[in-house]
Write a structure and sequence with these properties.
The chain has about 375 residues and is α/β, with parallel strands linked by helices. It has one domain: Arginase, Chain A. Helices cover about 40% and strands about 10% of the residues. The protein contains 12 helices and 8 strands. Strands 2-1-3-8-7-4-5-6 form an 8-stranded parallel beta sheet, sandwiched between helices. α7 packs parallel to α8 and α8 runs parallel beside α9. The protein is globular, with a radius of gyration of 19 Å. It starts with a strand and ends in a 5-residue tail after the last helix.
Length: about 375
């Protein structure tokens, strides 16, 4: 059985962006509780490891000192900081008390996960509260304050590693792509709903990197209402070929589940069946695996999906019947979806057609560009 680690802290769900904000910390609490109900942390092969605060040095691997200081001051409620300059305000990126501590804890959790994987103590580690892939060096974006993924990859590059980054969040992983757009030691792959329909409005097939990094940024924008069959087909057509050709030392993933058909913020139509099939494909490609959580805004879906994902990481198939303490508390009975969304044949065909065009385009461009080890 694969040795896995799950990085947690109850402080991760003590504070959040506000009651009306989609990114509810409750989803983290419920994920931790569901895995606990299944006895996921009762084995020597599945470590429950405390998170820690990120250091200023770690934050500085990607973020500017000016921005870090601004977040600290805003978090304390200090006046004299131009919040709008750093993209804070009403909407996606509100300021909240303790923001710096909470968001630095998410980043620190990723550092703990990375340390466990690089040391060889585990083969895979899951920083489920992280995956803040939109944040930029000097401003917040899309609910993301500090980009834990970019920091972790910078740390790996400093260790001389080749990194394949796979992002299956419904939103384009723009912050991570931009961080390594001119780098041929990081392969970034993002499958997401098309930017024509969804934030952040980027991630088109033409975005393939620049300079020595040309061909090392890969994007497949998908049409609204793309279902399991089309998504999994497209993923398996492209990702294994790319990753095997690139031959990374480590695979990093962002496993957002806002692709689910019940998610309130997007329009893809995956079920837990399709999601698990993709995560299983990733596992088959990963020599070492550092995984982050990401998006997902339906409280009845996120804990189930991330429990299933952790099961894949750990080589454990959890029973479908949810244990009674959790089931009674939250009114859920089964771990897996037993219904699929109804889709008109025309809608399904249109989504499939767009995916096929994207796949063929990528085969003609990036697949020919990727170079493995010399």
């Amino acid at each position: 059985m694969t040795k896995a680690a799950f990085i947690y802290s109850e402080k991760l769900w003590e504070r959040g962006h506000g009651e009306a904000h989609p990114l509810q910390p409750e989803r983290l609490k419920r994920t931790y509780e569901l895995l606990g109900a299944y006895g996921a942390f009762d084995s020597e092969d599945s470590l429950l490891v405390p998170a820690r605060q990120a250091t200023l040095e770690e934050l500085g691997l990607f973020h500017s000192q000016e921005y870090i200081t601004a977040v600290q001051k805003l978090s304390r409620g200090e006046e004299g900081v131009n919040a709008a300059r750093y993209n804070f305000g009403s909407g996606d990126n509100p300021i909240f008390a303790g923001m710096y501590e909470t968001e630095a804890l998410k980043l620190g959790a990723g550092m703990v996960a990375l340390e466990l994987v690089l040391s060889g103590e585990v083969e895979v580690a899951f920083s489920f509260a992280g995956g803040m892939h939109h944040a930029r060096p000097a401003y917040a974006s899309g609910f993301c304050v500090f980009n834990d993924v970019a920091v972790a990859i910078h740390k790996m590059l400093a260790e001389g590693l080749r990194v394949a980054y796979i992002d299956i969040d419904v939103h384009h992983g723009d912050g991570v792509q931009a961080a390594f757009y001119d780098n041929d030691r990081v392969l970034t792959i993002s499958f997401h709903e098309s930017g024509y329909h969804l934030f952040p409005g980027s991630g088109f097939v033409e975005e393939i990197g620049k300079g020595v990094g040309r061909g090392y940024a890969v994007n497949l924008p998908l049409a609204p209402y793309t279902d399991d069959e089309t998504y999994v087909w497209a993923f398996q057509e492209i990702v294994p070929l790319l990753v095997q050709k690139f031959d990374p030392d480590i695979v990093v993933t962002q496993l957002g589940i806002d692709t689910h058909y019940q998610d309130p913020l997007a329009h893809l139509c995956l079920t837990t069946e399709g999601y698990v099939a993709v995560v299983e494909t990733i596992k088959s490609l990963a020599p070492r695996w550092l995984s982050f959580g990401g998006g997902g805004y339906e409280l009845d879906v996120v804990p189930r999906a991330w429990t299933l994902a952790y099961g894949v990481m750990w080589d454990k198939e959890f029973p479908d019947e949810i244990p009674s303490p959790y089931a009674d508390k939250y009114g859920l009975t089964t771990l897996r979806d037993h219904k699929k969304p109804f889709l008109d044949d025309w809608v399904r065909d249109q989504a499939r057609s767009q995916a096929e065009v994207g796949v063929e385009t990528l085969k003609k461009t990036v697949l020919r560009s990727i170079q493995g080890r010399e």
